[in-house]
Amino acid sequence: GESVGLHLPTLSVQEGDNSIINCAYSNSASDYFIWYKQESGKGPQFIIDIRSNMDKRQGQRVTVLLNKTVKHLSLQIAATQPGDSAVYFCAENLTRRGKLQFGAGTQVVVTP
Amino acid sequence: NAGVTQTPKFQVLKTGQSMTLQCAQDMNHEYMSWYRQDPGMGLRLIHYSVGAGITDQGEVPNGYNVSRSTTEDFPLRLLSAAPSQTSVYFCASSPRRLATGTHEMNTEAFFGQGTRLTVV
């Protein structure tokens, strides 16, 4: 998993398995969280978001879980595919108006 | 729909040179931001703007200036480049959305493809 501001961990996943990427956030007042995917040489791409009045949100093959009690966020990717190989960042919105604080990221490597 | 467009994609500067990184968005977003990304680290906020004519500092503003004369454009200026400014720079924009009444909602940011800057 990752924590805001620390080193970049790597998650190696076999194709077809489920991936779980973890993130610990720092500010208990944050009320909006986003997961981004960044492929090599590209900008971050929005995956899914969740507001603090929810504890789970599902998208296409992705699920985000939010545990406010322990300030923990996770991204689950179902049936991981080679195209899922990328760095995944969680971000928290501290004060609205587009200002985001990012975690250091997790490198996901999908193996055949 | 182009989204967020950054130019140039690559740039090499000598220490002390100045340059402007361009950012334009065609989504009519009120909020725009500049981030830098260094190896093994997440993105760090440099400057941001909540609308034309309004800018403010982020986490790492030193050595950078910004202006926002139009909704579409948010250039980032390096007045005297230093090797410590070698990084990948991302511009982002976000829409302003209101929930019921006037309560402002948080919204996601849309990113450009980045400018890779090397200062030698």
Q: What does this protein structure show overall?
A:
The complex is a heterodimer of chains A (112) and B (120). By secondary structure, chain A is mainly beta. Chain A has strands at 2-3, 10-14, 19-24, 32-38, 45-51, 56-58, 62-67, 72-77, 86-93, 100-102, 106-111. Chain A contains no helices and 11 strands. In chain A, the strands form 2 sheets. In chain A, strands 2, 4, 5, 9, 10 and 11 form a 6-stranded mixed β-sheet that branches. A 5-stranded mixed β-sheet of chain A has the order 1-3-8-7-6, with no helix packed on it. Chain A is globular, with a radius of gyration of 13 Å. Chain B has 120 residues and is mainly β. Chain B contains no helices and 13 strands. Chain B has strands at 4-7, 10-13, 19-25, 31-37, 43-51, 54-57, 64-66, 76-78, 87-94, 97-98, 104-105, 110-111, 115-119. In chain B, strands 2, 4, 5, 6, 9, 12 and 13 form a 7-stranded mixed β-sheet that branches. Chain B is elongated. The interface between A and B is medium-sized, with 29 and 31 residues.
Architecture blueprint of SSEs:
The complex is a heterodimer of chains A (112) and B (120).
Chain A: E1 2-3, E2 10-14, E3 19-24, E4 32-38, E5 45-51, E6 56-58, E7 62-67, E8 72-77, E9 86-93, E10 100-102, E11 106-111
Parallel strand pairs in A: 1-3, 2-11
Antiparallel strand pairs in A: 3-8, 4-5, 4-9, 6-7, 7-8, 9-10, 9-11
Chain B: E1 4-7, E2 10-13, E3 19-25, E4 31-37, E5 43-51, E6 54-57, E7 64-66, E8 76-78, E9 87-94, E10 97-98, E11 104-105, E12 110-111, E13 115-119
Parallel strand pairs in B: 2-13
Antiparallel strand pairs in B: 1-3, 3-8, 4-5, 4-9, 5-6, 7-8, 9-12, 9-13, 10-11
